[in-house]
Write a structure and sequence with these properties.
By secondary structure, this protein is α+β, with helices and mostly antiparallel strands. It is globular.
């Protein structure tokens, strides 16, 4: 959640509540003004630790609830290496554990 806070406006948005269970995170943010759900979803999607980020429909334009899946540590580390590195897939494959290929059907 600290990474989410870094991506949001500092003076107009705060975390109201959150819930994490079984790899699923749900949190609600409140703003002093109207919130753009597409802006908030994009900012959260930009964090390599989350996937399937969705804004839940609401009736108040100053409150937004988001749901997402939190990636396991191994996936997060791989994504962080991939975005920080040169994008050389071969380099990533050499640095990680060997994984046998899937059998052909």
């Amino acid at each position: 959640l600290a990474e989410v806070a870094k991506q949001m406006p500092k003076d107009s948005l705060y975390l109201k509540e959150w819930d994490y269970q079984n790899g699923k995170l749900k949190f609600t943010v409140v703003s002093s003004g109207q919130l753009s759900s597409s802006f908030v979803v994009k900012k959260v999607q930009d964090i390599a630790w989350f996937k399937n980020v969705q804004a839940l429909p609401g009736t108040d334009s100053t409150t937004l609830t988001l749901t997402m899946e939190v990636l396991p540590n191994s996936e997060t580390a791989l994504l962080a290496n991939k975005t920080e590195g040169s994008g050389d897939v071969g380099k990533l494959e050499k640095s990680g554990p060997a994984v046998p290929p899937l059998p052909k059907s």
